[in-house]
Write a structure and sequence with these properties.
With 318 residues, this protein is α/β, with parallel strands linked by helices. The protein has one domain: UDP-N-acetylmuramoyl-L-alanine:D-glutamate ligase (3-Layer(aba) Sandwich), CATH 3.40.1190.20. The protein has ten helices and 13 strands. The strands form two sheets. The chain has a nine-stranded mixed sheet with strand order 5-4-1-8-9-10-11-12-13. Helix 6 links the parallel strand 10 and strand 11.
Length: 318
């Protein structure tokens, strides 16, 4: 029997694949009080699931590496497959439950979340997936156990892969300063928002964002309505303006869509400024509907919104 060749992908995404319960309230309640739920929806989610889905829908060959439980919805698997995502390293662990997240948003689109890690809590004991490291160009290390993230980064760096580190909100309650310091030293790119930037600086006992460039080559900081900032070790600082959505319905997954857009630009060999614009445009689509995977744009849609109609045809060909 001839052994089938492994598929080659551009991007390998590590992190959570989860089921999101998204609730909308008028305002957050005081402690020991209640608030009426205006809307409630159950959606496919997780940082890795969101990122991989958006990237694949924008034409990026993407492999998804995560662990799910025996309760993982078959409809979610078909949903990921329909986008063309490589699910070689999406591992089902029998007897465990899939991660789930309760997200509560107020009318100002501020969010609080409650995470049931499920099977991901035992990630440090799991066997390291190979395909999503060995057969890709870029390894994106997102949410999950720090010990597992360290193993992924070490393996990826030993193979000369480009490594992006993106612990997200877990930086504040999953990571210690020692764990964070060990991993960021192995990364080439660090993604964070303004809050996470402050935590990262505190962990490393640094004062300025530029200080992180002694660890990574590229720092990408998202700032919501203020756009984003890309800084490089060579001294370049790029201010990326926000791309206005048609409406703001739910901000769940906007950061994941931003990252997917950035990779969609890199896949087509765009410069950092253009990658940032594509990223902002992708995020603008994500906030226009409920859930992290419900409004994915095509590559042409993103280009049109990022660069305007006169550039869309040129961008779409690359």
């Amino acid at each position: 029997m001839v052994e089938q060749m492994a598929r080659k992908d551009f991007l390998g995404v590590f992190g959570h694949v989860a089921v999101d319960t998204i609730c909308t309230v008028e305002s957050f309640p005081e402690i020991n009080t209640c608030e009426a739920v205006i809307d409630k929806r159950v959606e496919f989610g997780g940082t890795a699931g969101n990122l991989a889905f958006y990237a694949a829908k924008m034409g990026v060959p993407t492999a998804l590496a995560s662990f799910v439980g025996s309760d993982f919805p078959e409809s979610y698997r078909r949903h990921l497959e329909s986008a063309g995502i490589d699910l070689t390293d999406l591992v089902t662990v029998e007897g465990k439950r899939t991660a789930s997240i309760i997200i509560v948003s107020d009318k100002a689109h501020r969010q609080i979340g409650f995470v049931d890690q499920g099977v991901m809590l035992g990630q440090n004991r799991m066997k390291l997936p190979k395909h999503s490291i060995e057969d890709v160009e870029i390894v994106h290390v997102g949410t999950g156990r720090p010990g597992f993230a360290l193993r992924v980064c070490m393996r990826a760096k030993s193979l000369g892969k480009l490594v992006a580190f993106d612990p997200g909100q877990e930086l504040s309650y999953v990571y210690s300063s020692k764990e964070f310091s060990s991993i960021i030293r192995l990364a080439d790119i660090f993604f964070c928002n303004k809050t996470e930037l402050g935590i990262a600086l505190r962990y490393l006992r640094k004062e300025r964002a530029s200080d992180l460039l002694s660890y990574v080559d590229t720092l990408i900081v998202t700032m919501g309505k203020r756009g984003s900032r890309i800084m490089t070790r060579s001294g370049e600082t790029i201010a990326v303006p926000p791309v206005r959505p048609r409406k703001v319905v739910d901000t769940t997954g906007a950061g994941d869509a931003y990252r997917a857009g950035f990779y969609a630009g890199l896949y087509r060999r765009y410069g950092l400024k253009e990658c940032g614009m594509v990223a902002s445009a992708a995020a603008s689509f994500a906030v226009e509907s409920f859930g992290g995977q419900t409004n994915p744009p095509s590559w042409e849609d993103v280009c049109r919104r990022a660069f305007g109609d006169k550039y869309a045809r040129i961008a779409a060909r690359q």
